[in-house]
Amino acid sequence: MKVDCLIVGAGPAGSVMAKEMASYGYDVLVVEKKQEIGCPKRCAEGVTKHGLDKLEMKIHPLCIFGRIKGAILYSPSGKKVLMEGEEMEGYVLERKIFEKWLAAEAIKEGARYMVKAQAIDMERKNGNWLLKVKTIEGIKEIEAKLVVGADGVESKVGRWAGLNTTNKITDYHSGIQFEMAGLNIENKYIHIFFGREVAPLGYAWIFPKAFSFNVGLGILVKQAKMRAYDYLKKFIEEHEEIFRNAQPIEINAGGVPVAHFTEMVTDGVMLVGDAAQLVNPIHGGGIYRAIHSSLMAAEVANKALKENDLSKERLKEYEKKWEEEYGEKTKKLMKLRAFLEKLEDKDFELLAEILQGEDIYALTQAKLNFFIKKLIKKPSLLVLAKKYLM
Ligand SMILES: Cc1cc2nc3c(=O)[nH]c(=O)nc-3n(C[C@H](O)[C@H](O)[C@H](O)COP(=O)(O)OP(=O)(O)OC[C@H]3O[C@@H](n4cnc5c(N)ncnc54)[C@H](O)[C@@H]3O)c2cc1C
After folding, report:
1. How many angstroms does the Cα of residue 225 sit away from the middle of ligand 1?
2. Binding site membership of 32 for ligand 1 (Cβ less than 6 Å)
3. What is the C-alpha separation between 304 and 148, in angstroms, rounded?
4. What pLDDT digit, counting tens, does each position of 27-66 carry?
5. Which residue of 71, 140, 243, 390 has the fewest CB atoms within a 10 Å radius of its CB?
6. Does residue 43 line the site of ligand 1, with CB under 6 A?
7. In which domain, by residue range, is 7 found?
8. CATH number, residue 149
9. Separation CA 328–CA 360 (nearest Å)
10. Ligand 1: does its nearest atom lie under 6 Å from the Cβ of 179?
11. Nearest CA to ligand 1 atom 38
12. Ligand 1 and 175: CB distance under 6 A
């Protein structure tokens, strides 16, 4: 089989790429190793409305399983900071539906899909790529002019193509989550909990859905005394008032790459979404960036295919676009992450005293100067901030 564009992985990045490339008129094939697209999910399913609007994405209403007004942040001792406002409004999706809907949108444009089809290897052949794909009907060989690695955090496409895709172990967070029913908690906000004993160098969350909640946490394994699962059990036990009548209806786990590596393309290959490790390094949200990366990559791929030039140099335009849009911001957020990783519980208490919801939103947008000024009132934090943020 021969195609113009072969996409490995049918997550948000893969299906958005498929829709774009099919709409330009290319012969597009998506291979997905799971037997069911979107299932099991490895995600708390939160997206901001403002983010989707920016991407001009009108998602099908059936994908939305919760509407939220903002976030409530909890310091280790339980002090609350409320984050509200238009930019904090958002949705909790049902990814099992969202991903199928994204695939259906791509299929409407003419993309082809194979499920339970796992890419297992690839090699260069006559200027194209030859992929081996394990399917229910046996191993298939598929030749493609362009291969898009949309294969998530465990991506192999980049490695097969010779890119160095390995980051430091400290650049991966380990996430674990129950979907639970029967919680006793307000359901118009997402709830975020901080503390070294809650989730070392990460945070715990409760995201409300129509009749259930995603309850999870992400930690940096290297700094942890227990497994992520044990922290989650402890978190649930310690919040008796919320979880008294709660029961799990699903458990899922996954890795979150919280640092970006630089090379996203090589000859005839582009990486998008988590495969290129593009999540926001502060909160670990990756759906928005996965979709945005595919929109950018597809625009460049279209031009490159038209010019019949899929060289690394030509495809680098995608990398440059990404860098222009996100490079500076990501660098600042990485500094902020380094700063936050140095904080003790007492420091989070101090921050909860001086920061309002809008300050925290500004921080997530990599606005650091105002933050340093605010810390003048807290000299111990100012020293750290000067070291890590300036
Ligand atoms: C616990 C947890 C909570 C999270 N919560 C949020 C959140 O609330 N909001 C948010 O924005 N982000 C969240 N994220 C991050 C978000 O889930 C990812 O950033 C997003 O899914 C990236 O999309 P993607 O399409 O790049 O990759 P994925 O969604 O991971 O999709 C990759 C696809 O490739 C397939 N695949 C892999 N290898 C192969 C192969 N060899 N052959 C064929 N198919 C293959 C996989 O089966 C998968 O379907 C969370 C992550 C975790 C782990």
Report:
1. 26
2. yes
3. 14
4. 999 999 999 999 999 999 999 999 999 999 999 999 999 9
5. 390
6. yes
7. 2-45+94-166+260-310
8. 3.50.50.60
9. 19
10. no
11. 151
12. yes
